[in-house]
Input
Amino acid sequence: MKVKQFSVALIFVMSASVTTVIAQALPAKVRTYLTDNYRGWKQTAVANGCYASFRKSVIVGDFDSNGKSDYAVKFIHGRRGHILAFLSRGTDYKPYRLESMSASELKNTGLNIARRGERIEGEDVSFTLTDDTPVIGTCASHPGFYRFRSGDFKPL
Output
């Protein structure tokens, strides 16, 4: 999966509007899905070398502009690391895999959120976000944005 690279300066812009959630605040249906499909899963906020704003295990926002809270969760399952998004669908949540990698790679990967209305400035791109957007990046490089469009998350 190729992710468009953006200026690291963007990290400072996003850090002002971050919402985090602790494990107990995850909806029961999200926790149940993770337990049923990733038995023994463990949230991790470890993000070696990342700014503090990227050391999150859970973010919450409205990723599809339906007015409901959606979640993205960073966790380890065995030797694998995953970042899944869960979109609110009525009384349930639909999961979407944003990233899957080794557990050691995940420990060098950060999770953050960019909010609807934020202006994104990069070397060759400039736009305003129309939805809250998960932001994932290896701590040694630039972050990648994952926008929900046409029924799936698409990296920018």
User: Anything to note?
Assistant: The first helix runs from residue 10 to 14. Residues 10-155 form one domain.
